[in-house]
Amino acid sequence: MSLPRRDLPQLMAQFLRGVQHEFPLLVGVFPFGMIYGILAVGAGIPQSTAQAMSSVVFAGSSQFITAQLVHLGTPGLVIVLTIFVVNLRHALYSASIAPYIRHLPRPWKLLLAYLLTDEAYAVAITEYEKAGVTAHGHWFFLGAGLALWTTWQLSTALGIFLGAAVPQGWALDFTLALTFIAIVIPTLRDRPTVGTALTASLVALAAYNMPYKLGLILAALCGVTVGMLLEGKR
Amino acid sequence: VNLWLVLILGGLFTFLTRLSFIYLLGRVETPRYIQRALRFVPAAVLSAIIAPDVLISDGNLDLSLGNFRLPAALVATLVAWYTKNALLAIMLGMLSLWLLQAAF
């Protein structure tokens, strides 16, 4: 990237604004990263692997589930398939943010795609919808994304370090279900999404004893199908 | 389970999912039914994870009063619905679970 030097202060300013806007979310992300580290070590995942997962996969909810599945002795192929399905929602973010970064060179696209987490997306799309495509808007995105990335790595490391010290009775694994409740409940604003959530819940319960944890994937497929059917009727 | 293989493949799929439309935009048209389906993926996947986590203990459906996760999840649900504050919902849900565990 060769840039005219006079642009530098503006780039930095955008980058720092991105970090600033991400900050409120980091307060919530830090404990989740710690809990992931604690759970991963508790599930028997070696410390180095648990930490590597935070930078290679870099997706909180699928990391939580991976820890759980490893603990249950799930076959690797099913874990990979589950990670894929759980992270499919990121395709939605990709579609929504793509028009704002389509003019960027390929290395930028690859980097920003890697940083496209739930929390970075939320902050970046808000800014893009307000400001539109600007000369240095992608530096804002980069600032938000890197702030989250750094927080996730540090909080994971702290969780892995503390792993053994947290008593079982605290039931910290339940924060996963609570986190997902907090994310999903506000999105249930119309009949199709409510139908999706109810169907997926019921199928997941009914199919819980299916081999290889395949019930999760079956439930997700049924939920999406019902959502589309309900939407189509209107 | 070969954990490193899981990690690399899981990471690769996740990255490609995030890159998908950023890469494809302007090259191919996304089918409309895929766009429609994507809208329901988060609610479907997250619900399918939440329900067994809250309602199944030791492999069986547990709707009894002794399952403290159920009231704790209801508290989080109500807080999330009315305040849309994720952190508050998680903290009050966890607090409910701890209080019930301590009281009974």
Descriptive account of the structure:
- The complex is a heterodimer of chains A (234) and B (104).
- Chain A is an all-alpha fold and 234 residues long.
- Chain A is built from eleven helices and no strands.
- Chain B is mainly alpha-helical and 104 residues long.
- In chain B, 74% of the residues lie in helices and 4% in strands.
- In chain B, strands 1-2 form a two-stranded antiparallel ribbon.
- Chain B is elongated and about 60 Å long.
* Biggest sheet, spatial arrangement of strands of chain B: 1-2
Structural class of chain A: mainly alpha
Shape of chain B: elongated
- Along the chain, the helix and strand elements of chain B come as HHHEEHH
- Spatial gap, N to C terminus of chain A: 49 Å
Unreliable sequence segments of chain A: none
> For the report, how would you describe the main beta sheet of chain B?
2 strands, antiparallel
> Helix segment count of chain B?
5
Form type of chain A: globular
Largest sheet of chain A: none
Give helix % range of chain B. Answer: over 70%
Number of helices of chain A: 11
Rg calculated over all Cα atoms of chain B: 19 Å
Overall radius of gyration of chain A: 19 Å
Name the quaternary structure.
heterodimer
User: What do the pLDDT scores of chain B average to?
Assistant: 89
Features:
heterodimer; A: mainly alpha; B: 104 residues; mainly alpha
List the helices and strands and how they pair.
The complex is a heterodimer of chains A (234) and B (104).
Chain A: H1 8-42, H2 47-56, H3 60-71, H4 76-86, H5 89-101, H6 106-114, H7 118-131, H8 137-162, H9 174-184, H10 191-206, H11 214-233
Helix pairs in contact in A: 1-3, 1-7, 1-8, 2-8, 3-4, 4-11, 5-7, 7-8, 10-11
Chain B: H1 3-24, H2 32-38, H3 41-55, E1 56-57, E2 60-61, H4 69-83, H5 86-103
Antiparallel strand pairs in B: 1-2
